[in-house]
Amino acid sequence: FYLFSKERDQGRWVMVDSKIWEVLGASQHRMALRWTEEVHRSPHMKVYQRFSQEELLRRSERLFERLVEWLKESMAKQEMGKVFVHLGKERYKENFPLCEVHYAFFLIKRVLWDFLLAENCFSDSLGLYKVMEAMEQLNAFFDLIVFYTIRGYMEEMAQSLVKEKGWDDEEARKYFFPGSFYGATSELFDREKRRHGGLQTER
Hints:
The chain is mostly helical. It has 8 helices and 2 strands.
């Protein structure tokens, strides 16, 4: 039993255990409903709570569907990065606090774990080592999608400040350090220079 294969070191995540896939595939709608319930109960989800139940359910179902699909099949880190960088950009545009976006992922992971435990996916027959390995790999997967989401959020924030506040790259680099974005920092400011003029980037 392996939740993900060792190909993760080569830049791919591969889910290979059939029981876990079957549970997740059959529980997407119920997990989405549970997540919306958690959102409504949480004092940390103020922006999400402004959305209708239908919109929350639509968003959560789409995310759980993607997660299950990606966990079932192989997924390149680059592909995963692009998708969640885009998600981070969208959450910034929707005026979500970054901490709330992170907490939404926490609730998603907690709901997913509750369903796996309820279905006895981690039975005693697997052995403690295998259970711990599965937990490690799933946690690593969520940590990585959070990482890319934060990068997308910060990149969109930087672009907004350059465009709306007239920051030059010297001002922006005081607050956004190398490695903050999915692309190179210089590439970001080059794009904004071409759009708005006046930015000078170091090579």
